[in-house]
User: Fold this.
Amino acid sequence: METLAPPVLREEYIGKEAPAGKIPPASSFFCRFLAGSRLRLRSVGIMRFGARSKELGARKLILSDKFGRPITDLRISITDRCNYKCVYCRTGNEGALYGDLPFAEYLRMARIFAALGIKKIRLTGGEPLLRNGVIEFVRQLSRLRSADGEELDLAMTTNGHLLTETAQPLKDAGLDRITVSMDAVDPDRFARITRVPNGYDHVLAGIRAARRAGLWPVKVNCVLMRGFNEDQIIPFGMFAREEGVIVRFIEFMPLEEDRTWSPAIVVTLDEIVQRMAEYRPLVEIPHARSETARRYHFDDGVGEIGIIAPVSHPFCGHCSRIRITSDGKIRTCLFSVWDHDLHELMRRGAADEELVEFIRSVVQRKEERHHIGEADFVPASRTMVHIGG
Ligand code: SAM
Assistant:
């Protein structure tokens, strides 16, 4: 069931939607799953001891990897297609595309993951807003419950090009938060980076629409590349304060289609903090252990900046993430050289219990850390656009 991911051209399923109807809460899945599965034999001893033991039983079912990291954060790519061709991500030509699945199949995966302790789901791509039916899919995801019976935290990463029209419907459907990618705050530079003319105004309008809709907090991601857009650091600082959004700088990672990455192109966390101080000093504020970004306020308390520094300050030790690709493969790390084909199992008619066992075994294989910049670094088997950030 493990495949070295080849780039495949698959027929698109665009427009297919999950069937309407009520989604069984994760807890009812739990009960069915405990009642019918082989795991019941393992769990049955625990279940005898009443409420406390029930809690223990539930805890036992929560996903964690062999390094003891709880897996609570699922990212689902719902399409490989993207309407932008950002220079740090894509070649500029339409390359190989992986297929995507009907929403009902992602929904089933999400339901099972939720029962196993996932608390946050982020939709990504490709560009998730290109997919017909995404709003209805969000509505269905919002009816799922975590293993504790809590609502899931639902977020999306988008280039924002189609957000003006979709922000309010997404919020109404149950989306909590949004992250918009934007790598320059000047329209010409933005067009050079995205290779799309006139995108900047759409994205800015999308960011404002997201704020108005209450998709809070609105985060704006900027990947910095030396010699290309590192002069945008201070303008982005001003943008964060003026627009009331959290700007997050991301260190460029070797996940691009062109394989142009080199350590010299990476603008590091230390440089960003230093450069921003020429405008106003940043003061670090606490962040959750599993959070990817280090967080800062300006010295006057106005405006928040995040810096995601996987290259200069790796945070793999606290990684709580797992990903599903648009074609239904599990990836345990952005830099995995293997995919694990969950969809193939589903296609062959596997019951939920079998999927659970498969997911558990895959999670045990989660990589300890990435090896960016080291002599033994092996490029990931997919580039970022085919994984979902
Ligand atoms: N289309 C959506 C978007 O633009 O946000 C979602 C997909 S995009 C692949 C997700 C995120 O990955 C974006 O914030 C993008 O800037 C980031 N990204 C892409 N390639 C990257 C790289 N090589 N290093 C760091 N971040 C990257």
